[in-house]
Amino acid sequence: MTDKNAPTNINNSRHPWKFFRAGGFDQVCLESGQDLSALDQLDQKLWIALSCPVEGLEFDRKTLEMIDSNGDGRIRVPEVIAAVKWATSMLRNPDDILKGASELPLTAIDDGSLEGRQLLASAKHILANLGKKDYPAISLTDTTDTARIFAQTRFNGDGVIPPDSSDDPEIRKIIVDIMECLGGDHDRSEKQGVSKKKVDQFFADIQAYSAWWQESETQDATIKPLGAATESAAAAFSQIRPKVEDYYARCHLAAFDARALSALNRQETEYIAIAEKSLSSAVDEVSGFPLAMIVLGNRPLPLRDGINPAWTVPMENFTNTVVQPLLGNRDGLMETEWRQVRSIFAPYHAWQSRKEGASIEKIGIDRAREIVAANAKDAIDELLAKDMALAPEFDAIASVDRLVRYHRDLFTLLKNFVSFSDFYNRKVKALFQVGTLYLDGRSCDLCVRVDDINKHASLATLSRTYLAYCCCTHNAANGVTEEMNIAAAFTDGDADYLMVGRNGVFYDRKGQDWDATIAKVIEHPISIRQAFWSPYKRIAKMINEQIEKMAASRDKAGIDKASAGIAGGAQKIEVGISTVPAKPPFDVAKFAGIFAAIGLAVGAIGTALAAVITGFMQLVWWQMPLAIAGIIMVVSGPSMIIAWLKLRHRTLGPILDANGWAVNARARINIPFGRSLTKIASLPPEAERSLEDQFADKKGKWPQILVVIVIISLLFYFLNGKAFVLKLLTDIFGI
Prior knowledge:
Layout: E1 19-22, E2 25-28, H1 33-37, E3 49-53, H2 61-67, E4 74-76, H3 77-89, E5 103-105, H4 114-129, E6 137-139, H5 140-144, H6 146-149, E7 160-161, H7 169-182, E8 185-186, E9 192-195, H8 196-218, H9 220-223, H10 230-256, H11 261-264, H12 268-275, E10 301-302, H13 312-327, E11 332-333, H14 335-353, H15 364-374, H16 377-389, H17 391-414, H18 421-425, E12 435-439, E13 442-444, E14 447-450, H19 453-460, E15 466-475, E16 481-490, E17 503-508, E18 513-522, H20 528-575, H21 588-617, H22 623-648, H23 653-657, E19 662-663, H24 671-677, E20 678-680, H25 702-733
Helix pairs in contact: 3-17, 4-17, 8-15, 8-16, 10-13, 10-14, 20-22, 21-25
């Protein structure tokens, strides 16, 4: 089944599209409002991006959320087309979108449709409320200042009415009561008010609360045995009840088996642990101990003396508010009396469990009954109806804000979605470029925000681009340290000093500087120049490592030999010189064999070297540079060819795909374009340069002497010394 939202095939389109070539592929030119209006006719296979995330772009977030009609956090082709269609239909001249102006002239709004007329009227209403009645244009600053737009209006069509929406003082007071019980809602003017939902809930709660309260009044003696004091007495009873029940249960267990008496009263070790502390602060630790000492026999629960110190105050409160009013003065409470007290409070607790409309307790039963008697719900509902009647007019204000945003931002999005013209023309940064990284004498413009470095790197490595992932930190003005991860593409220079731990500075699009530290690198060829020198650098690195290993080995051998000598000297002192074994005699045959082996090795090397030199010397003078170039190509050629093949496939797509984009083209980053993305430090054209360096390395005379010797030798060779040189090589190396 065909998706009705998908763009139609370009073969069915009659719009005369124009294309430009950049990044190795064709991209559509958007040069007029007609191009924008016909976007639904552009074959989707020719769109550079099929979707992009709302997060992580250098673009107005609210504009993206408006385009994201389904709210899934992604912008897709049908949503872009819908936004363009609506914006072009609301403007007299769709070419205005290409200007990207921050102000929308009122005369640019097309009032030929009902929606257009409402939108124009709303724009004028906004300006009038802001004191700009005769101003010819509206900006984003105007549409976002909702507090001022609705400050002078009593009703604004948002379904929320503040207290001052009524002229009746009693209605105003009731609206305040509703906000006190259920909380308020913000209306478009940022005032606190109430919605239809909360009004209905409030009056339903009042009815339920009043009926529940009336039940206690009809059964006053049963539900409230102590009258007005019942509530506080029931609270004291409920606080002490678990401990009293625990006390009688322990007494029953002790009566069942006297052996449990010691354990029921806690062990002596527990008291010793508490005694080591300050007793004033350890009272709470004994709150879990029994309410009173457990003894055998039918002993009443003491009410005053012998009470757990942690429960002294609650027991005193229970005695004064419950026991004395119900049972009279006494020092102990039998279990039968406890059961009697419990049964007296049972109806009250059952009534409390049936409570309804608990939110109304904040204003009390007397105020609740006043509101019920006032029959104010109809009046409040009438206010809500008046407010909602204006909803279409004021909803159009949101459409004004939407059109102003599209008028300013939509063309920028298209240049980073339908095509990547912003990225390839290098005049402005693309939406995904978050700033510039300065590190290792270079500036990198292709920097993208990254949430998960390892996850991004697993896909971004397919871009064949050298990427350095950096952890960036910025100390904001409010003292809060902000953190961000970026992936920076190095597309020119070399990678000799790019390594984990190196520090640089990152500048975001706002000009704020961040401390940047490399946390991970993905290594790929950066340039042909780097590939040319890489074999020699590897050879030099290998030789350097071998020399270091050899030096370390010799150093270790010297230290071991010295240690052994010192140990041997100490041993001689202890056991005497006479006990040291005699030194073995010199082995002439063994020495001669070693010397012969060394001679053979030197001879083999000399023979090979002589063969190379002899062959080179036999060449005609103009063939020698070609031979040298050939040797260089043999060494550097494979590395350069591999680098060239990889650089031909260097592409932007995987870098963006790893961030949630769906790039629909092979957006290449070729060598010339890569040089524009990474700038290497260079002196200004007008700069003066002094070559004197007082700290330069001292140069010896031997390099100059060797150069002179080589030149003289070559002249001698070419003039009259060819036979002499060949004879000399024959005499030396036996050729």
